[in-house]
Specification:
This protein has 1104 residues and is an alpha+beta fold. Helix content is 34%, strand content 20%. α5 packs across α8, α9 crosses α10 and α14 packs antiparallel against α15. One of its GO terms (molecular function) is nucleosome binding.
C-alpha cells in the first residue's frame, strides 16, 4: 500500500498521525492499514479527521474481497498466461510478484496494480507466486486471515489451491521462501524452471531483499514478464471502465467548474497567484468532490499527480513536470497550460488544456493545427488499427497544415491509462505495432514544445501548447470522457485589448477566418474609446466580408437538389375495394349505396351496381329543384394538374375515365343521407391516409430505455401538453418523466403517450412564469414525432400558475381589500412554488445530460433573455419574442417560433426610418430554398436593442426603407450564384454604402439615391419589364402623374413639404431629410429608381 504524506498535509495533522503511529506496534500498523484502507486514497488529514481510533482487530471482519471479481480475473489471468505464454510471458513456469512496503512518494507499480486488480486492495510486503496448480502467499498473520476467504473461489474458478505462508514478526521468512522455491521445482517439468518477475521494481525492505537474494542464488531462470501484465491490464472490463468514467467525470468537472473560473477571476482581477498555490487549490478540489458538485465519496478519490500549472515561458510537457513557485503570467501573447488528473478506486484519468491570452495570428494557427491533429488521433483509435497509426494520423495533419511545426511535435500522442497512469507497452508512438482492442483506455496527450513567438518579452518569446483527454476505444466511435472541457478556440482564447489598437484586428481577423470569435473576451477601456455605434459599424463591416466569403464557399460546393415537398402519393393500384365480383354486396334495388366496411360507394349504372373506391371521389354535392333532388359526384381523374399520372395509370394512357356522374331522385331524405355518408366516409379515409403519410415520413427513433430502480425518479407531474392529443373527451394532465435515454409523457389514458429521445432534441428551453400565466419546458426536435395524430417538431409541457377567476358580483375589489391582498399572495406563492419545481426538474435532467454518453449531444436547457425581448407579429397575432443564447423564440402563443441562430444567413430590417412607428424584420436562412421568416410590426423603439443583440451574436444585419420581395431575390441567387458573388454578394442591401457611392457617381448599381436627372428611356423600359424587388401598391395612371407635374411648381411642393413637417413636428429634421421628402413628392413623375445588383430583377419603387 502506498500511504502518501504530502507537503499539503504538514502541521497538526502530520503531528497527530506521527503520534498515532508511534503508539502502535508494527503488526498492529499492518493490520490497521489492511482494515482502514488498502486503497491509496486516504491521507494524513482524513485519517486524523476520523479520530485516529484503532481499527477493529479482525481484518476479515472489516473488509471483504469481491469474490466474483476475484474468480473472473483469476481465471482470466491464467487463460492469458496459457494463451500467450511463449511471446508475452517468456514461457515462465511460475510468476513471482513481490509488493514493496508503503512509500511517501506517489508512484505506480505493476505489483500494486496486480494486487488491486485481483484482490481489490494493495498488500504491501507480500510475496505472491503463481504456479500451474497452486498460488503461494508469504505474508503476515493479519493479511493471511483476509486471504483465507478466497481459497474456495480459487479452487472453483481455476482449480487452484492457495498455500499461505504466515511470516512471524521477527522471522526473516527464509524458511518459507525455501519451501516456496521447492514447490516451484516440484510443479515444473523442467530441471531449471523459468520464473517470471517484474525486473524494473527493485526490492525494498528486508523481506523483499531476502527474497531477491534467494531467487538469485537458486538455479531458477529469471525472466521479465512486464509485457504480459501490460497486455493483461490493457483491456478493461465493465467495472474498470465505470471507475475510469467516474474519475474522468471528476477530472473534467474540476477543470471546468473550478480551474477555469479561478484562472478567469485571477486574470480579470489582475491578482498575483503562484503556480504552486493553484496546484494546491486544484488538488483540494479533487480530494473534496463536493466543491465541484460531484457526488463521489471523498475516500474513494485521489490525485494522479500534483496538478500542473505553467506559464511565463517555462514549459515542460512531460508527465513528470511540476508546478513552480512563479506567479501566473497573463500579459499579452502569453500562454497558460493546465493539466490535472484524478483517480477513482485507484483508476486514473487525465485532462490538459492550453489557454491563450491576446494571442497572435501565429499562435492561433499553431493551436488550430494542434486541435486538428488531436482530433485526428481520436478518430484513429478504432479496433483493428495499430497503436502507431494514431501518432501517424497526427503527423499527417501537421505535415499538411503546418510542416514547420513538425519538429516541435511531442514524440508520442499519449499512453494507455488505468491502474497505472502510464501503462507500459501502450505508448502512442510511431513504432508501436500492437493492435487496438475495444475496452482499451488512453491518455491522449499531444502538444507542441518550445515554439517561438514574435515578441520581445522573454516571458512570452517561447511558448508550448498541450491538449490531453481520456479516451475509451470501442466498437462505436471513440468515447472522449473529458469532452465536456471544451478545447475550441472560442473557449480557450481570451482577448483583453491591452496592446496597441492595430494589433487587435489582426487577432480577430484570424479568429474570424476560422469561423469563431473569442466569446469570453473581457474588454478594458482604452484611452481613445470609440462610440458603440462606430464599434458596431466596424464589426458589421467585418461580418459582411465574412458572410460574403462564407456564402461564396457554400454556393460553390454545389446546388442541392430540392424536392417539391410532396409526400408519396397513393397509386391507383393500391385502391382496391373488392378483390373479386363475388365480394360485392347484393343490392335489392338500384340505388346508391355506401359500403363503409370496404370503403366504397356502389352506383347504379345501366342496371348494374358499379363499385368505386371512396378515394376516387373528389367531391359530392346535392341540391333540390322543384321536388327533384340531384346528386353530383366528381371523381379524381389522372393526368389533371392536381392529380398527376402514377406508375399504374401510365400503363393505360389510352383509358377513358369517368370525370363526373349525376343522379336524380325524388326521395330527399335518402339523397341527404347518401351525400352525408359519402362525405363522412371520404373525410375519415382522407384523414387516415394523411396521418399514414405523415407517419411514413417520420424518422425511426431509438427505443426508450426505462429507468430501473437504481436510477432516481426524475418526474414532473400535472402537466399539460401542446400540441394536445386529439379526441372529443375531456383533456387530462399527465406526468413528464426522464428515463435512461429520453423522456416519456403519459396521461391516465393508455393511448395518450409521447416519447422524446435525448438524441432527437435539438434545443431545450425552460421559461419560468414572470409576466406570463404559465411555466413551461419546451423541446425543439431534429425530426418530427407524432403527438396524437399531429406531426410536430415542437413539444411543450406547461402548468398554469394562476387560475382565471371571475368575480360574481361584477365589481372590482379595492386594492387594499385584505381578501384581495391574501389572494395575490397565494398566487405569488403558487407561482414561485411551480417555478422551483420546474427548476429542480431541469437541474436533475442536467445531471443526466452531464453523463459521458450524452456529451456529444451538447444538451442544455436554455432560458429566454427577457431583457432583450421585443414585440412583433411572427404569424397572425402580436407576441413577445425573446432571444436565448442559441435561438430566437416565442413559446407562449401558438404556433411556436423557434429560430436557430446558427441557421441564419442575414437579417434585414425593413421599413426603418421615415418616421415610422413600426418596422419589420426579415430573417434569411442559409438554406436559400427555405422561405424567409418575417416578423412584422416591431415597435421602432426596439430597433437599437435588436441591432445591439444581432451584433453581439455575430449576425450580419442590413436596413432598407421598404419591404423587399424575397422570393425572386433568392431564386436569382440560386440560379446564378457566380453572378451574385461577382456583384458583391449581400452588399446590394447596404443602404449606407449605396448612398455614399451615389455621391461620387451619377449612376449607382449598388444602392438607391434619389436624383433630379431624368432617367434614360431605355432603362425605364427595362425597369418596367423586370420583376419587382419591392412590394408596392399598383402603379397610378400616367396621365394623373402628368397632371400633377403640370399643376405644381417647385415652390408649391416646397411649401407643402414644410407644412407637412410642421404638422408632424419634424422642424428639427436635417436639410438632407427635407430634400428626400421633396424628391419623394416628385417620385411619381421623375422616374426615380433604386438600382439593384446585376442579375437581380429590379423595378421602380413607388412612394406614397
Amino acid at each position: 500500500m502506498e500511504f502518501s504524506l504530502r507537503e499539503r498535509e504538514r502541521g497538526a495533522s502530520a503531528c497527530a498521525l506521527a503520534k498515532w503511529l508511534y503508539e502502535r506496534s508494527p503488526d498492529d500498523l499492518i493490520a490497521s492499514f489492511l482494515i482502514w484502507s488498502f486503497d491509496p486514497v486516504r491521507d494524513a488529514k482524513s485519517f486524523v479527521e476520523n479520530g485516529g481510533a484503532k481499527p477493529p482487530a479482525s481484518a476479515a471482519a472489516a473488509y471483504t474481497i469481491n469474490l466474483d471479481n476475484f474468480s473472473m480475473r483469476l481465471k482470466g489471468f491464467y487463460t492469458h498466461w496459457s494463451d500467450h505464454k511463449p511471446n508475452l510471458w517468456g514461457s515462465a513456469d511460475a510468476i513471482a510478484i513481490a509488493t514493496p512496503p508503503t512509500s511517501e512518494d506517489l508512484r505506480y507499480l505493476k505489483s500494486s496494480a496486480l494486487n488491486i486488480w485481483l484482490l481489490g486492495y494493495e498488500f504491501p510486503e507480500t510475496i505472491m507466486v503463481f504456479m500451474d496448480k497452486q498460488i503461494h502467499f508469504i505474508c503476515s498473520q493479519k493479511k493471511a486471515k483476509l486471504l483465507d476467504t478466497v481459497k474456495k473461489s480459487a479452487r472453483e474458478a481455476a482449480g487452484l489451491d492457495l498455500v499461505i505462508h504466515v511470516k512471524a514478526k521477527d522471522d526473516d521468512g527464509t524458511a518459507l521462501m525455501e519451501d516456496t522455491i521447492r514447490a516451484i521445482r516440484a510443479q515444473s517439468k523442467s530441471e531449471s524452471p523459468i520464473v517470471g518477475y517484474i525486473s524494473k521494481e527493485a526490492p525494498e525492505g528486508k523481506l523483499l531483499e531476502t527474497w531477491s537474494e534467494k531467487l538469485g542464488n537458486s538455479t531458477l531462470q529469471l525472466i521479465d514478464v512486464t509485457n504480459g501484465f501490460s497486455d493483461l491490464f490493457s483491456v478493461k472490463d465493465g467495472t474498470e471502465l465505470t471507475c475510469i468514467k467516474k474519475a474522468a467525470y471528476l477530472t473534467s468537472s474540476v477543470m471546468k467548474n473550478f480551474v477555469v473560473p479561478k484562472l478567469e477571476r485571477a486574470i480579470d482581477e489582475e491578482k498575483k497567484v503562484s503556480h504552486s498555490s493553484l496546484m494546491d487549490d486544484a488538488e483540494k478540489a479533487i480530494l473534496n468532490p463536493t466543491k465541484v458538485k460531484v457526488k463521489l465519496k471523498a475516500e474513494n478519490v485521489d490525485i494522479c499527480y500534483p496538478p500542473i500549472f505553467q506559464s511565463g515561458g517555462h514549459f515542460d510537457l512531460r508527465p513528470s513536470a511540476s508546478s513552480n513557485d512563479d506567479n501566473l503570467y497573463y500579459d499579452s501573447t502569453s500562454v497558460i497550460i493546465c493539466a490535472i488528473g484524478s483517480r477513482y478506486n485507484s483508476y486514473c484519468s487525465n485532462v490538459a488544456r492550453t489557454f491563450l491570452i491576446d494571442a497572435t495570428a501565429t499562435q492561433i494557427k499553431a493551436y488550430d493545427v494542434l486541435v486538428k491533429a488531436h482530433d485526428a488521433v481520436i478518430g484513429s483509435l478504432k479496433p483493428g488499427n495499430t497503436v502507431g497509426a494514431a501518432y501517424q494520423a497526427a503527423i499527417a495533419v501537421v505535415q499538411k497544415e503546418a510542416p514547420e511545426l513538425l519538429s516541435n511535435l511531442t514524440k508520442s500522442a499519449g499512453t494507455g491509462i488505468g491502474l497505472e497512469f502510464r501503462e507500459s507497452g501502450l505508448s502512442l508512438n510511431s513504432k508501436n505495432d500492437r493492435l487496438l482492442k475495444p475496452g482499451m483506455v488512453f491518455n491522449l496527450s499531444l502538444g507542441f514544445q518550445n515554439l517561438q513567438a514574435q515578441t520581445k518579452n522573454p516571458k512570452t518569446e517561447i511558448y508550448s501548447l498541450l491538449l490531453a483527454d481520456t479516451v475509451i476505444v470501442s466498437e462505436k466511435p471513440p468515447e472522449v470522457l473529458t469532452a465536456s472541457c471544451s478545447k475550441a478556440v472560442k473557449d480557450v482564447a481570451y482577448s483583453f485589448n491591452e496592446e496597441e489598437e492595430e494589433e487587435l484586428p489582426s487577432v480577430k481577423a484570424v479568429l474570424n477566418n476560422k469561423g469563431v470569435l473569442a466569446s469570453k473576451a473581457t474588454l478594458r477601456s482604452d484611452n481613445q474609446e470609440m462610440s458603440k455605434e462606430e464599434l458596431r459599424r466596424q464589426h458589421q463591416a467585418e461580418l459582411a466580408r465574412q458572410k460574403n466569403e462564407e456564402t461564396a464557399r457554400r454556393l460553390a460546393v454545389g446546388r442541392s437538389a430540392g424536392g417539391d415537398g410532396r409526400g408519396p402519393a397513393k397509386t391507383s393500384s393500391d385502391l382496391v375495394a373488392y378483390k373479386n365480383v363475388n365480394d360485392i354486396p347484393f343490392a335489392k334495388q338500384l340505388a346508391i349505396q355506401v359500403d363503409q366496411k370496404n370503403e366504397a360507394i356502389l352506383l347504379p349504372i345501366y342496371g348494374s351496381m358499379i363499385p368505386f373506391h371512396i378515394s376516387t371521389v373528389k367531391s359530392v354535392t346535392s341540391h333540390q329543384d322543384h321536388g327533384t333532388c340531384t346528386i353530383r359526384i366528381i371523381f379524381n381523374v389522372p393526368g389533371t394538374p392536381f392529380n398527376p399520372h402514377d406508375a399504374n395509370t401510365l400503363k393505360f394512357q389510352g383509358a377513358i375515365y369517368v370525370k363526373e356522374i349525376t343522379f336524380r331522385s325524388k326521395d330527399p331524405r335518402h339523397t341527404s343521407e347518401v351525400v352525408q355518408l359519402i362525405k363522412t366516409l371520404r373525410r375519415h379515409v382522407t384523414s387516415r391516409e394523411s396521418e399514414r403519410a405523415e407517419r411514413a415520413t417520420l424518422v425511426t427513433q431509438e427505443k426508450l430505455q426505462l429507468a430501473g430502480n437504481r436510477m432516481k425518479s426524475v418526474k414532473l407531474p400535472d402537466l399539460w401538453i401542446r400540441p394536445s392529443f386529439g379526441g372529443r373527451g375531456r383533456k387530462l394532465t399527465g406526468s413528464l418523466e426522464a428515463h435512461v435515454n429520453g423522456f416519456r409523457y403519459a396521461t391516465s389514458r393508455p393511448d395518450e403517450r409521447v416519447e422524446i429521445m435525448f438524441a432527437n432534441i435539438k434545443h431545450a428551453f425552460f421559461q419560468p412564469a414572470e409576466r406570463e400565466m404559465i411555466t413551461l419546458v419546451h423541446f425543439h426536435l431534429h425530426n418530427h414525432i407524432m403527438v396524437g395524430n399531429k406531426k410536430t417538431k415542437d413539444v411543450q409541457f406547461y402548468v398554469e400558475v394562476m387560475d382565471v377567476v371571475q368575480t360574481l358580483g361584477g365589481g372590482r375589489r379595492s386594492a387594499l381589500d385584505p381578501d384581495e391582498i391574501e389572494e395575490e399572495q397565494r398566487e405569488r406563492d403558487r407561482k414561485n412554488k411551480i417555478n422551483m419545481e420546474f427548476q429542480s426538474f431541469v437541474n436533475k435532467v442536467h445531471d443526466i445530460w452531464a453523463q459521458p454518453q450524452f456529451k456529444g449531444l451538447d444538451l442544455e436547457f436554455d432560458m429566454p433573455l427577457r431583457e432583450l425581448g421585443f414585440h412583433g407579429v411572427p404569424h397572425k397575432s402580436s407576441a413577445f419574442i425573446v432571444p436565448t443564447s442559441t435561438c430566437l423564440v416565442e413559446l407562449i402563443e401558438t404556433p411556436f417560433l423557434v429560430v436557430t441562430l446558427g441557421e441564419i444567413e442575414i437579417v434585414n430590417l425593413e421599413r426603418v426610418g421615415f418616421g415610422q412607428k413600426n418596422f419589420d424584420m426579415t430573417i434569411v436562412f442559409k438554406d436559400f430554398k427555405r422561405d424567409v421568416l418575417r416578423i412584422d410590426s416591431i415597435p421602432s423603439s426596439s430597433v437599437d436593442g435588436i441591432k445591439e443583440w444581432l451584433d453581439t451574436t455575430d449576425l450580419k444585419y442590413y436596413e432598407s426603407r421598404l419591404n423587399l420581395n424575397w422570393r425572386p431575390i433568392l431564386k436569382t441567387i440560386v440560379e446564378d450564384p457566380e453572378k451574385f458573388i461577382e456583384d458583391g454578394g449581400w452588399e446590394f442591401l447596404n443602404m449606407e454604402a449605396s448612398e455614399s457611392d451615389s455621391d461620387n457617381t451619377e449612376e449607382s448599381d449598388k444602392g438607391y439615391e434619389p436624383s433630379d436627372v431624368e432617367p434614360e428611356s431605355a432603362s425605364e423600359d427595362e425597369d418596367k419589364d423586370s420583376a419587382s424587388l419591392v412590394e408596392s401598391d399598383e402603379d397610378e395612371e400616367s396621365d394623373e402623374d402628368s397632371e400633377e407635374e403640370k399643376g405644381k411648381t417647385w415652390e408649391e411642393l416646397e411649401r407643402e413639404a414644410t407644412n407637412a413637417d410642421r404638422e408632424k413636428g419634424d422642424e428639427s429634421d436635417s436639410e438632407e431629410e427635407k430634400r428626400r421628402r421633396k424628391v419623394k413628392a416628385l417620385g411619381k413623375s421623375r422616374g426615380l429608381e433604386r438600382s439593384v445588383p446585376k442579375g437581380v430583377p429590379g423595378k421602380r419603387p413607388k412612394f406614397n
